[in-house]
Amino acid sequence: MTVRLSASLEHLIEALAELPGLGPKSAQRAAFHLLDKDAARLARLSEAVTEAKTKLKRCRSCRTYCEGDVCPVCADERRDRGLLCVVESVPDQMALDASLAWPGLYFILSGRLSPMEDRGPEEVGLTDLIARVEEGLREDNLREVVVATSYTPEGDATAYYVIEALKKRAPDLRVTRLARGLPSGIEIEYTDLSTLAGAVYDRREP
């Protein structure tokens, strides 16, 4: 006879299993780890999740998470507003910025194109990107857009789609992609900082 878990415990495990990198077994271990902690720690975790849900929103310019209408990066007047880097996710933005190689602004997509997961151009935010580029052309003398998607099949497809869409809307705009210094199949988020910096410096026309 197998041990049956309570409905509330199963619900907790199922919720944790939806997080990236957590399968059923690791979600189960995480659930028991949380339950083994004292009530004060669980209360702090619950409070942090609630606070993040109520206070955080998307920056109206780059779509990163922040507590105001505009994030600190977009509000920083020292940034070169004529340069825009398109990334797949907030962790990708953080990794590139930590390399100290990118002096401009960012635009964050909602992942990569993936027909298998029903993520098309609208789902990843292409309409918002086009609007952001048109705003940059009008107000900031936008000179260059760097497409910094991962060098994976889906990342390549996303880059190709974005590049073609931008060229149709703004034929005179310089559009580049990170150099192939990034190994094939690598995720931007997990690339070391020196490789990221070299890829930014060696960017090229697609």
From TrEMBL:
Entry keywords, A to Z: DNA damage, DNA recombination, DNA repair, Metal-binding, Zinc, Zinc-finger
Alphabetized InterPro entries for the sequence: DNA_Rcmb_RecR, Rcmb_RecR, Rcmb_RecR_Znf, TOPRIM_dom, TOPRIM_RecR
Entry annotated with the keyword Zinc-finger: yes
C4-type zinc finger segments: 59-74
GO BP of this protein: DNA recombination; DNA repair
GO molecular function: DNA binding; zinc ion binding
Domain Toprim, first and last residues per copy: 82-183
Zinc-finger as UniProt keyword: yes
Pfam short name (any one): RecR_C
SUPFAM superfamilies per UniProt: Recombination protein RecR (SSF111304)
Source species, domain of life: Bacteria
Described function: May play a role in DNA repair. It seems to be involved in an RecBC-independent recombinational process of DNA repair. It may act with RecF and RecO.
Family: Belongs to the RecR family.
Protein's name in the database: Recombination protein RecR
Native source organism of the sequence: Sutterella parvirubra YIT 11816
Lineage: Bacteria, Pseudomonadati, Pseudomonadota, Betaproteobacteria, Burkholderiales
Gene name as annotated: recR
